[in-house]
TrEMBL record:
The keyword Repressor does not apply. The lineage of its organism: Bacteria, Pseudomonadati, Planctomycetota, Planctomycetia, Gemmatales. It comes from Tuwongella immobilis. This is Large ribosomal subunit protein uL18. Part of the 50S ribosomal subunit; part of the 5S rRNA/L5/L18/L25 subcomplex. Contacts the 5S and 23S rRNAs. It comes from the Bacteria. GO terms for cellular component: cytosolic large ribosomal subunit. Keywords: Ribonucleoprotein, Ribosomal protein, RNA-binding, rRNA-binding.
Length: 122
């Protein structure tokens, strides 16, 4: 098995372990995080009805002015604050943090800390 295939298998295994214990409801949605090399995305998802309740990212026309580059910790903090504000508007105070296959450090940790400071708890 080549190196990239091994990496993909490890990521899939890690993602399954993390997501097997997390289920999003309307009262406590799953806060799913995806990061690429240039952007970071976060969604609040109700798994019971299969609906995205709120979403924020560094990509798109509305976000280009506030964060010129989305692949750094400062952009992740901005997205964390934005998702916390959107959650407060919808009346959401609790969330289940789903980091996917990403380790909890760097941009993922910065996003989570900013969301906590904004009023979300998980």
């Amino acid at each position: 098995m080549n190196r990239m295939k091994q990496k993909a298998v490890r990521q899939l295994r890690r993602r399954r372990h993390v997501r097997s214990k997390i289920v999003g409801t309307a009262e406590r949605p799953r806060m799913s995080v995806f990061r690429s090399s240039k952007h970071i995305y976060v969604q609040l998802i109700d798994d019971e009805s299969g609906v995205t309740l709120a979403a924020a990212s560094t990509a798109g026309k509305t976000n280009a002015s506030s964060t010129p580059y989305g692949g750094n910790v400062a952009a992740a903090v901005e997205v964390g604050k934005r998702i916390a504000a959107l959650a407060q508007e919808k009346g959401i105070k609790l969330a289940a943090f789903d980091r996917g296959h990403y380790r909890f450090h760097g941009r993922i940790k910065a996003l989570a800390d900013a969301a906590r400071e904004g009023g979300l708890s998980f």
